[in-house]
Amino acid sequence: MTTTASDQVVATGRAESRDRRRRPLPVGKSFAAFILVAIAAFMVFPLLWLIATSLREQNTIFNGPIFPTHITFAGYRNAWVTTEFALHFLNSVWITAATVAGVVLFACLAGYAFAKLRFPFKNVLYVALLATLMMPSTSLIIPLYLQLKTIGLLNTQGGLLILYISSSAPFSMFLMRAFFQTIPDELVQSARVDGAGEFTVFWRVIVPLARPGIATVIIFQFLSTWNEFIYANTVLQDTSRLPLQPVLFSLMGQYNTDWPTLTAGLTMSIIPVILVYVWMQRQFVAGMTLGAVKS
């Protein structure tokens, strides 16, 4: 029986694959893999504890096994009813969506202007906007509260949106400026030579190329707005207007806490975050890589 050249190639490939499987991993790679697995387990454990606690009975929270032996969904039922979860969930969706849209709009326009246009005091304005990032948000609560009260926007979701957009736009503008700077100036100049206006250049040329950067801003802004607590709890006194996070925080008692109800509400609240990240993760990774090229 004759052996063809293709059979020899296949046999050689199988022998090489067996050698690779038998070859031990280097010590350095094995140690790095062990460290990465330990870090992953350390990061995943709080999430697993959260889900497990939401499925156990109240009297087995701290004296029972790590994973419940008897699963109950009473915590989810209580969280849905006692917190009016649907109402506050919709409030969070509306506030977060409006904030993300406003921040993306202002960040893209300002980032394009600082990256591709020339105008007086350009660098001064840019530094002034970045200087606002140096101030902690907690130090601005009292003056912002008084300002909203003066203009009649206290205890309104519109006033909360103004705070969210104005406080988040500078950082997002900084990110978008870095992404726009990676786009060659020749593309902008050629579009202008062809007679395109500035807005046409921005919308037809720049924005399609900056989709990874926009996805990065969307994810960052969605996470920060969805989980924000201090501004919402300070500006809004009407309980029916509150987003989800302050309402879930109210489940924390001074002397006693219904942990299954609290963890069930938190588990349901993180579902939109996971969905948004899974939906945009490819653009997000591309955006982080692109933004690191040039700043």
Summarize the structure.
With 295 residues, the chain is an all-alpha fold. The protein is built from 14 helices and no strands. The termini are far apart.
Structural features, described:
- The chain is mainly alpha-helical.
- The protein has two domains: 22-72, no CATH class; 84-291, MetI-like (MetI-like fold, Orthogonal Bundle), CATH 1.10.3720.10.
- Helices cover 72% and strands 0% of the residues.
- The chain contains 14 helices and no strands.
- The chain has helices at 5-22, 27-54, 74-82, 85-116, 122-131, 141-150, 157-181, 185-193, 198-209, 211-226, 230-235, 244-249, 259-269, 271-291.
- α4 (85-116) runs antiparallel to α10 (211-226) and α10 packs across α14 (271-291).
- The longest helix has 32 residues, at 85-116.
- The radius of gyration is 26 Å and the shape is globular.
- The model is unreliable at 291-295 (pLDDT under 50).
CATH homologous superfamily label of the largest domain:
MetI-like
Question: How many strands, what sense, and barrel or not for the largest sheet?
Answer: none
**Number of domain units:** 2
How many strand units?
0
Would you identify the regions where 5 or more consecutive residues have pLDDT less than 50? 291-295
Provide the β-strand percentage band: under 5%
SS class:
mainly alpha
CATH architecture assignment name of the largest domain:
Orthogonal Bundle
Return the CATH class of the largest domain: Mainly Alpha
**Named CATH topology of the largest domain:** MetI-like fold
Distinct helical segment count: 14
Assign a percent range to the helix content. Answer: over 70%
Order of helices and strands: HHHHHHHHHHHHHH
Coarse morphology: globular
What's the average pLDDT? 84
CA-CA gap between termini: 65 Å
